[in-house]
Design goal:
312 residues; 2 domains; 5-stranded mixed beta sheet; 3-stranded antiparallel beta sheet; globular; binds zinc ion
């Protein structure tokens, strides 16, 4: 999907709704009241009616658009931008592109989509050989804490901890992978509260197959990993060797940092996970090409919006 295709395929609200409905029907509409999957489509009211209990739901209900008042076209422009741009873009940019008066709903729309991207990736676990390490991302501290800190003459930044996992297979002899001894598969990044073993353990069991092998440093946070996967190979890694021993987690961390810093200037810790979702989602689908737009649509009809935010 390029910009010209987008403009010709979806010139108005009705063409977007038609496509949206096609994807909802394909995924299967479920009645939130009785769980039935059989529905009538009531075209006059633009809603589904359950064949069993007659409960009605709109086209947007129980999808990422749940509760949204914004035109379908805005969403489609966002699907396009999110899947066709290699980097990212700010809510300000999308607001300009669609010409909407208010910033807040556009900003929320993007976060809802980033949350759906995260949910999509959570359906898959990493497997094989996995590099694991922590990254520290600079985020803005909360307003209350900022004033308190500034009084002490400190900056307004804090570091959010992120657990990074990357499938990483040794390159076999004769394989062409430029300058690398390992090739990367899928990656995952999760904001964590602390570096306690318990915290790391639960992320690892949630996101890594038990048959996997994990490579990491010998931090005490990782003492239980050998019980959670087939093999854990902790190593003492001198600082200058980290990029050699765990190349892909470090490439992922530095690329994500650069990207986030260049686009989002007020990175708040509570939204960092969503930005990481977008980064990982795009990374994991880097070879999808044209299919990305459709995949985004599938994720958008599949996951009900649960994004909550408070206005500061
Ligand atoms: Zn029903």
């Amino acid at each position: 999907m390029n910009l010209l295709n987008l403009a010709t395929s979806f010139p108005d609200e009705s063409s977007c709704k038609l496509k949206w409905k096609e994807y909802r029907d394909k995924q299967g509409v479920v009645c939130p009241h009785c769980g039935s999957k059989a529905h009538y489509w009531k075209s006059d009211k633009e809603c589904y009616e359950c064949k069993t209990c007659h409960y009605r739901q709109s086209l947007r209900s129980n999808t990422i658009m749940h509760g949204s008042q914004l035109p379908f076209r805005y969403w489609f422009v966002a699907f396009h931008l999110l899947t066709s741009t290699k980097k990212s873009f700010s809510a300000k940019e999308l607001q300009r592109q669609v010409g909407h008066k208010f910033y807040e709903p556009i900003w929320a729309l993007l976060h809802k989509l980033r949350a759906a991207m995260g949910k999509r990736d959570e359906e898959y676990k990493l497997s094989g050989i996995i590099e694991l390490d922590e990254g520290f991302f600079s985020t803005e501290i909360e307003e209350e804490r900022k004033t308190e800190k500034l009084k002490r003459g400190r900056g307004s930044q804090k570091k959010s901890k992120v657990l990074v996992m990357a499938e990483s297979t040794p390159v076999e002899e004769g394989e062409k992978v430029k300058d690398k001894s390992r090739k990367v598969g899928h990656i995952k990044m999760y904001v964590i509260e602390d570096l306690k073993a318990k915290t790391i353990d639960s992320k690892v069991s949630d996101h890594i197959e038990t048959t996997s092998t994990i490579d990491s440093d010998n931090s005490t946070s990782y003492t239980n990993l050998r019980k959670l996967v087939a093999e854990h190979r902790p190593k003492v890694i001198p600082k200058e060797d980290v990029e050699k021993v765990l190349p892909w987690v470090h490439i992922a961390i530095s690329n994500a940092k650069r990207l986030l810093l260049s686009v989002f200037h007020d990175l708040k810790p509570e939204y960092l996970q969503n930005y990481l979702n977008e980064y990982c989602y795009k990374f994991n689908r880097r070879y999808f090409g044209e299919r990305q737009f459709d995949r985004m649509l599938i994720a958008a009809v599949t996951y009900k919006n649960e994004f909550r935010y408070h206005i500061r």
